[in-house]
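Input/output pair, single chain:
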Amino acid sequence: MNEQNLIPFPKGRSGNFKGKPKGTISITTHLKKLMTTKLSVPELTGSNVKLTAKELIALRLVKDAINGNSHAQDTIIDRLEGKVTQPMEQNANVVTMSKIEIDGRPLKFDVGNKD
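Output:
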């Protein structure tokens, strides 16, 4: 590293001159705004009632789950109940790797706690 190149930028000046222009609205901001926009989708709701995009997505998810879509069912259960945790047991402190041998015996690694 050449320390001569480590010159700080002048005050008020960034190193990324062609970066995102000020005032640019992020995709997240656009999505949040769209999710609260009221829409009418008679094919989904069965009437001209206006629902937010969030509500329409939830309605579609529930309808898909009722019609047997297992992915939709899993998504709803995970959102309402939380994802199922899978317990992992750690009983052994030694891992045997039978493919690696030293003097004709399998190589063993001690992976016990280092207290």
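The mean pLDDT is 81. The CA atoms of residues 38 and 52 lie 4 Å apart.
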